[in-house]
Predict the 3D structure of the following.
Amino acid sequence: MDQVSTPLSSRIRHGLHPDFREVAAQLHRDFDLRTGAEVVDRVLDEVAARFADARVRTFLPLLVHRYASSDLRSVTIAPSGAVQGRAGASGVASQASSVS
């Protein structure tokens, strides 16, 4: 496995499941240029927090990837460089606007 060179927040680095590292790396590859690394990390933290009390953890990487990808697809960067998102995208749109 390749070493992840993207910044990961403490919740993802020490997250619920070791496979989150690969999920985070994939999401960073897919969305860093579009939304920025900070937004990707924030979305990962939010999505992972939804499953903090999950009893069955087998499919957590799959679920986190699916929900985070969906949320990140709803976030776009405007031509001015400001991050914009669809309202209701798990709070990402309102929080992402402060990142630029």
Q: What stands out?
A: Strands lie at 75-77, 83-85. Confidence is low (pLDDT under 50) at residues 1-8, 86-90, 93-100.
